[in-house]
Design a protein that fits this description.
The protein has ten helices and 14 strands. With 387 residues, the protein is an alpha+beta fold. It has two domains: 258 residues, Beta-lactamase (3-Layer(aba) Sandwich); 110 residues, no CATH class. The chain has a seven-stranded antiparallel beta sheet with strand order 2-1-13-12-11-10-9, with helices on both faces.
């Protein structure tokens, strides 16, 4: 497995498909593979090593989901009670219906209450402007900043449909992070540190890039229309944010995130046996939690940031409490019922509880679902399974 994984990753770097890559795999007992190849910043000397720090973007969502589910366990949050009881603003949500001739939005009050379940399953009605042009139009008309500004006003978006109606990927888990803060009395990063990151030994994972993390930081690269990669040293999330973005704000390493993956393989326990979540909570998070709704293609409305994106096109996919679930066996070797998701800059992970295998893959490239990086992730995963 090591020889095959090394080979596919080295070849991709040597061909210039990716500037640098770190990949790691685990079983329930411990790390089975970990390696880095290429450079943190194209054209510079620093190697992409296993301890390289990267923006993991929406891989943050699973950690925020775990934080919320801890508070469900403790009776401080309810999965199915009205979220407005915790965050009153969630009781004032409107549904976007159209735009008037002047380009101003026409909205109406939502008829159903949003719940934490809706937020964790992306069925509340929120969306991202990257994949929904009408949200971009609303943001322009109402002067709403983008989510990566980490400004509170970025969360003042309308719904596209009634809560619970269908799946639509969006700012839902940022609101779930706000719920964690409201009932814990802590900033989200501090709550995570005390209750998840610390117990799991994830000491290179945070919203704020520490000096120790910055010395190992990879930079994001953009792939142009000609296929060439250019480093963007300036692209970084605000380090003094108005809110810590539970939907996409964490920086981490492949090895750190692998500890979270392993916790999900070990019924909620850390490597040292500490209970982070109850086994029954892990089971609940790992099952379809949105009824008959399905995960669908993310059609790009912002090509610099994302290509059209869908994992295993044509395969039936649902959503648990903060994870995508593939409902059929995947060609990589991943078992039906496994959990997975990704980060915007082409970071990916999967958790196969039936086979007791998981993995993390880290590059720093935009747009999402990169034409070279996503196939390389699949090739790495296939190598882990001996495919």
């Amino acid at each position: 497995m090591k020889a095959k994984a090394d080979s596919v990753l080295k070849e991709a770097v040597s061909k210039g498909d990716v500037p640098g890559v770190v990949a790691a795999a685990t079983d329930a007992k411990g790390t089975t593979y970990e390696a880095g190849f290429g450079k943190r910043i194209l054209g510079e000397a620093a190697d992409m090593t296993p301890d390289t720090v990267a923006w993991i973007a929406s891989m943050t969502k699973a950690v925020t989901g775990a934080a919320a589910m801890q508070l469900v366990e403790r009776g401080k949050l309810s999965l199915d009670g009205p979220a407005k009881a915790v965050i009153p603003a969630l009781g004032d949500c409107v549904v976007l219906e159209s735009f008037d001739p002047a380009g101003k939005p026409r909205t109406r009050k939502a008829r159903r209450d949003i719940t934490l379940r809706h937020l964790l399953t992306h069925t509340a009605g929120f969306a991202y402007d990257i994949w929904k042009p009408e949200i971009g139009k609303y943001m322009e008309a109402m002067e709403v900043p983008g989510i990566i500004s980490c400004q509170d006003k970025a969360l003042t978006l309308p719904l596209l449909f009634e809560p619970g109606e269908r799946w639509e990927y969006g700012i839902n888990i940022d609101w779930a992070g706000k719920m964690v803060e409201a009932v814990s009395g802590q900033r989200l990063g501090q709550y995570m540190h005390d209750n998840i990151l610390g117990p799991l030994g994830m000491d290179s994972t945070a919203f704020r890039i520490s000096d120790a993390m910055r010395g190992r930081l990879a930079k994001i690269h953009h792939r142009g229309g000609d296929g060439r990669l250019t480093a963007d040293p300036a692209l970084e999330l605000p380090q003094e944010p108005e809110f810590e973005m539970g939907g996409g704000g964490l920086y981490s390493t492949a090895g750190d995130y692998l500890k979270f993956v392993r916790m999900m393989l070990n019924q909620g326990r850390s490597d040292k046996g500490q209970a982070v979540l109850k086994p029954e909570t892990i089971e609940l998070m790992s099952k379809n939690a949105m009824g008959n709704s399905k995960v669908t293609l993310l059609k790009t409305a912002a090509p610099p940031f994302s290509n059209d994106a869908e994992f295993f096109p044509g395969m039936d996919k649902s959503w648990g409490l903060s994870f995508m679930i593939n409902n059929e066996d995947a060609p990589t070797g991943r078992t039906a019922g496994s959990l997975a998701w990704a980060g915007l800059a082409n970071t990916y992970y999967w958790i196969d509880q039936k086979k007791g295998v998981g993995g993390v893959y880290v590059t720093q490239i935009l747009p999402f679902a990169d034409v070279k990086s996503l196939p390389l992730f699949y090739a790495f995963e296939s190598a882990v399974y001996g495919k």
